[in-house]
Amino acid sequence: MKAAWFFALMLTAGPAAAQVAPTAPLPRVALDTTAGRIVIEADTLHAPITAGNFLKYVDGKRLDGVVFYRAVKVADRFGFVQFGTNGDPKRALPPIRHEPTTQTGLHHTDGVISVARFAPGTATGDFTISVGDQSPALDADPAKPGDNAGYAAFGRVVEGMDAIVTILDAPVSPTATVRGSFKGEVPVTAVKVLTARRVVVQ
């Protein structure tokens, strides 16, 4: 009798015990810009260091007032835009350890955000957003010679890609540079990030 009761209990408890607790949603950040709102989902699960770094800039309000200072348009809806601290030492946090795509499993597909860098391990507060599929060109590739670590992808645009395309399509100066670099890639009128804030995920 006791055995029968125990068996019945296990049958009723089994499905409930097998249920897995729902995973918490990934954090999202709204960039309210002069070109419209852009919402970015930061993948703290697969790229905790790089996504966490981005969130530190957001939470410290270090991205308020920065601009999209670079637009690299290779073809229609294909290229990338770049924004961030742009070398401002008052805004920059210490460099972070590089998280290659071979480690995170993320790739530079349309709308993916990654952190700009020089050598691996130098990234701070400048970020690029891909327009079109930039994988595998921007991904890590151990088969390549030299610096083959790629860029560290850490999230994606979930709202506002139309604003990103607007930034990419805007006129660029043929002569302007950013500290001697990016000639032909500097927007004539820079789009400004008014505020960068976390948003509640419904």
TrEMBL record:
Tagged with keyword Ligase: no
InterPro entries: Cyclophilin-like_dom_sf, Cyclophilin-type_PPIase_dom, E_coli_cyclophilin_A-like
Domain of life where this protein originates: Bacteria
EC top class, as a word: isomerase
Keywords: Isomerase, Rotamase, Signal
EC number in record: 5.2.1.8
Limits of the PPIase cyclophilin-type domain: 32-198
GO molecular function, one term: isomerase activity
Signal peptide positions (record): 1-18
Record bears the keyword Signal: yes
Protein name in UniProt: peptidylprolyl isomerase
Gene source species: Sphingomonas insulae
